[in-house]
Amino acid sequence: MATKYDAIVIGTGQAGPSLAVRLAKAGMKVAIIERKRFGGTCVNNGCIPTKTLIASARAVHIAHRVGDYGVTIRSPIAVDMEKVKARKDAVVRQSSEGLEKWLMNTQNLTIYEGHARFTNAHKVRVGDEPLQADKIFINVGGRASTPLLPGIDEVRYLNNSTMMDVDFLPEHLIVIGGSYVGLEFAQMYRRFGSEVTVVEMAPRLVKREDEDVSENIKTILEGEGIKIRPSAECIAFEKRGDKVAAQVDCSRGDKTVIGSHVLLAVGRVPNTNDLGLEHAGIEVDKRGYIQVDDQLHTNVPGIYALGDCNGRGAFTHTAYNDYEIVAANLLDGDHRCVTDRITAYALYIDPPLGRAGMTEAEVRKSGRKALIGKRPMTQVGRAREKGETDGFMKILVDVETKKILGASLLGIECDEVIHSILDVMYANAPYTVIQRATHIHPTVTELIPTMLGELKPLE
Ligand SMILES: Cc1cc2nc3c(=O)[nH]c(=O)nc-3n(C[C@H](O)[C@H](O)[C@H](O)COP(=O)(O)OP(=O)(O)OC[C@H]3O[C@@H](n4cnc5c(N)ncnc54)[C@H](O)[C@@H]3O)c2cc1C
Question: Mind listing the pLDDT tens digit for each residue in 369-399?
Fold first, then answer.
């Protein structure tokens, strides 16, 4: 006999726990299932540990630059990778254990530890234990994809999860993939002291961003001694003694990079292949993402999919927003939907890239009449005072409505500054609202009104 619940939540990522607690507090009898560690990717091998490691790497970087600020360090600067990892582990543990305690102390909520699999549209099995509910919420997230590159089975490689166990300094880290995850690790390990080569199949880094953004990021990373190998169309691996050789090109440039370790950072796949979705009749697309409507219902009544596994977002904040959408519709009579969401994210290299709305390329493609404003960080007083003037800020507005279409802010504090633009976009207000605001001096944000005062037609 299956144990009956009002709701079952599969996965304790960024949507599941908050939803489970809300449902339980609303008086429902709820089960939540986790097969690995509480908190999922973000907490255990994504956002939190990487940003913690990036903070250590930044400390090293600043230590090497203290002379620029008139400071002298008399002993050599050394990085203790075991301590760096221990610091990261402590921050992760705090989040993961805090989450587990929160779930354990919630009334009406039962935790199951194990792998969940559908047996039909209302039943899920965890190990030998059958559970049943009319409402099932899938929050199973994703994992690093391992492409079938020639020779990949012959060599040992790392991904974002196994990188979390590294407590030593790789001599030469070859990062396959010059996008968001790969670049954060590349800069971090370069700053710790590794040789780093980034191998990217596309002609440029982070190809979803505008060309000027990609180019500037390349300049920043090369300035720190990272080697970038774009257009690596034929990637293959070979063991060379205790080293790894990565073949990077069939036609031009250096053909081989020899390194000590390989990190695969070439995208993610949803954790939906082993969930028994076929027994419940739940539709997925050809890449395995669960198909959902604007309120995150799957094609099967009573079953919802939230977070990375639905392919409608790939971030912690989008997964959490999925929880808000489902809770608002189910419990608050508040009609919220995914299409209300404005694209926003950050790339946490240093300086970070903060993004909101459309890129310049997307605005051009849309064919609408737009204005563009751009300002290098060298013309931002706050950046000059801090001695960190890499990057630039760019904003696009619609000529007719005066609404902000998008912004790319690459520079110090820009992961925070972008919110001053994002909130005005959510308010659906014209850019002139920001232009007329009096901002605090000295800040990076105070230059946004100045940039908006210098808008030019997008040719
Ligand atoms: C290196 C890296 C850095 C990142 N940095 C950022 C960042 O700075 N900012 C940001 O917004 N996003 C970042 N992300 C993305 C972010 O981590 C994910 O978008 C987010 O974690 C997705 O949350 P989720 O709830 O969809 O799933 P997840 O967090 O992946 O959680 C899913 C959970 O479900 C469990 N599960 C899966 N299958 C089953 C099953 N069958 N039975 C039981 N349990 C199951 C898993 O074990 C996991 O705990 C990063 C990702 C990576 C890899």
Answer: 999 999 999 999 999 999 999 999 999 999 9
Q: How far is CA 296 from CA 87, 136, 191, 194, in A?
A: 37, 12, 41, 43
Is-cis flag, bond preceding 442, omega within 30?
Answer: yes
Whose tokens are 């596309």? That residue is 202
pLDDT at 254 over 80: no
pLDDT in tens, 163-190: 999 999 999 999 999 999 999 999 999 9
The answer to whether the CB of 377 falls within 8 A of the CB of 446 is: no
Number of Cβ within 10 Å of residue 196's Cβ equals: 26
Burial letters 339-350, b for 16+ CB under 10 A, else e: eebebbbbbbbb
Number of H helices, E strands in the chain: 13, 24
User: Is residue 407 helix, strand or coil?
Assistant: strand
CB of 13 within 6 A of ligand 1: the answer is yes
Return mean pLDDT, the chain: 97
CB count within 10 Å of CB 222 equals: 12
- Residue 243 beta carbon below 6 angstroms from any ligand 1 atom: no
Extract the runs of DSSP E, i.e. beta strands, from 306-386: 344-347, 353-357, 370-376
Q: Tell me, using a 6 A CB cutoff, whether residue 41 lines ligand 1.
A: yes
Residue 413 has pLDDT above 90, yes or no: yes
Q: How far apart are the first and last CA of the chain?
A: 68
Asked if 441 is an active-site residue, the reply is yes
> At 247, which helix (H) or strand (E)?
strand 243-247
